[in-house]
Amino acid sequence: MKKSLVLFSIVALLTSCGKSEGSLAGNVFWKYNNFIGNKPDSGSKVHLYPLTNKSSPFKEVADVRGDFRFDKVTVGDYLLIVVSENTNASGEDIYGELKDNSKYLKKVFDYNVPEIKLSGDIVKNYAIITKTINDTTLIRLGFLTHKFRIKPVSIQKDKTTNEVIDFGHTFM
């Protein structure tokens, strides 16, 4: 009896000491036009960066339905970055997304979003934004060529967090 109680206690202790994990699943899409409607953004690059430590990010590519999934993600706070392969961004799109998420970009990439004044000129704005992004990580992620979304997410133990990323109309 004592041996089985000790064995049960050891097994219970070992299983309770395991990593707390959860999952993240989502879908990415964009609007083709009002007649055709939404299209899955297959091929979108999906990155999940930890906010609390500098461990390696998770990377995935959206499938033909625009779906993505990360399993066995340690519980905690993350920065979800999705870069569309099917849409284009204006300078205003790029700067707005950077500015809205500046505190997360500082925390993950040590990137300070500069204060700039945008004008009504699309070409000029794009040139200004291009000059302000001199971080090779952000360039490699595609922040100058495609629409992207940056969003903080929390992973909870034994739960799946669901995220839907809508890139809206593409900029032509």
Automatic annotation (TrEMBL):
Q: What protein am I looking at? A: Carboxypeptidase regulatory-like domain-containing protein
SUPFAM superfamilies reported in the protein's UniProt record: Cna protein B-type domain
Going by the entry's taxonomy, the superkingdom of the source organism is recorded as: Bacteria
The family database entries (PROSITE patterns) matched by this protein are listed as: PROKAR_LIPOPROTEIN
